[in-house]
Amino acid sequence: MSDRKQGFDTLQIHAGAAPDASTGARQVPIYQSTAFVFKDADHAARLFNLQEVGFIYSRLTNPTVMALAERITHLEGGVGGICCSSGHAAQIMALFPLMMPGNNIIASTRLYGGTYTQFTHTIKRFGWSCKFVDFDDLDAVRAAVDDDTRAIFCESIANPGGYITDLDAIGAIANDVGLPLIVDNTSATPYLCRPIEHGATLIVHSTTKYLTGNGTVTGGAIVDSGQFDWSASGKFPSLSEPEPAYHGLNFHEALGGMAFTFHSIAVGLRDLGMTMNPQGAHYTLMGIETLSLRMKKHVENAEKVAKWLEGDNRIESVTYAGLPSSPYYDRKDRICPNGAGALFTVAVKGGYDACVKLVDSLEMFSHVANLGDARSLIIHSASTTHRQLTDEQREAAGALPNVVRLSIGIEDADDIIADLDQALTKATA
Ligand SMILES: *Cc1c(COP(=O)(O)O)cnc(C)c1O
Question: What is the pTM of this model?
Answer without folding.
Answer: 0.96
